[in-house]
Amino acid sequence: MVVETIEEITRQKTLLFGASGMLGHALKEVFPHAVFLGRKDADITSLDAVREIIARHHPALVINAAAYTDVDGCEDNKEYAFAVNGKAPGIIAAVCTENGVTFVHYSTDYIFDGTSMEYREGDYPNPVNVYGQSKLMGETCIQENSDDYRIIRTSWLYGSHGKNFVDTVLSLSTQMPVVRVVDDQRGKPTYTVDLAQKTPEILSCEPGIYHITNDGVCSWYEFARAFIPNAVPCSTAEFPKKAKRPAYSVLVNTKTEPLRHWRDAVTEYIQKKGTR
Question: Which residues contact 6 (CB under 8 A, 6 or more apart)?
Answer without folding.
Answer: 200, 201, 204
